[in-house]
Amino acid sequence: MGRALATRLGGEHEVVLVSRRPGRVTDGAGRVLQVGSDPAAASGCAIVLLAVPAPEVAAAAAWIAPHVDRAALVVNLATELPTANIAVPGLRLVGCKIIGQSAQIEQGSPAALIAGAMSGTERALLASTLGRVGVVIDGPEQLAMRVNDLVARRMIAAQLDLVAALDELGLPPQAREAALGNLAVGIWGAVASGNTGPFLTRIVEELRTPARSGTQRSREE
Length: 221
Hints:
The protein has 221 residues and is an alpha/beta fold. Helix content is 47%, strand content 15%.
């Protein structure tokens, strides 16, 4: 997620990447991003995004705390970690959770960012900075986790069901991989964005019609 955010924000903002595991990473466009090891590089940054796994957030916040300006906004992005559970003296720590998948964000698909309890000034700063990533909306931090869990479970269940149905057709492995990794992904993207051609539009209408009829019958009863 850190790489995805750096990729999206780099065209408009000066982005500094620091980690206790420094090195270089390549973004989706083939550009090499330098990751430094000196937390002092965060000095002067208006916003510090803690894009690390939940168990590492507190340690990462403490690592940069001596070097971050007192006016800087430090953002906990870890979906499953409530910001109230983090205590680092001297930091303006807020929670902003992302509804989105890092690879899709890196490729340019818009995400939604749930801004937890914060002041209007802090929210405005987040919205102006992260606008290239997606829309920033108000809401409880746990909402993002609920959405991510719901979508993941429904999509995985659909994938398992689809695999079983494809296996019944006796497809060779390469054909099944194409159906899942190419066709299924492409169809989902087209339907989700409303960019369907005649073939998909017809199927969408066919699948919606029974649902509407069932709803109408229930109301009449």
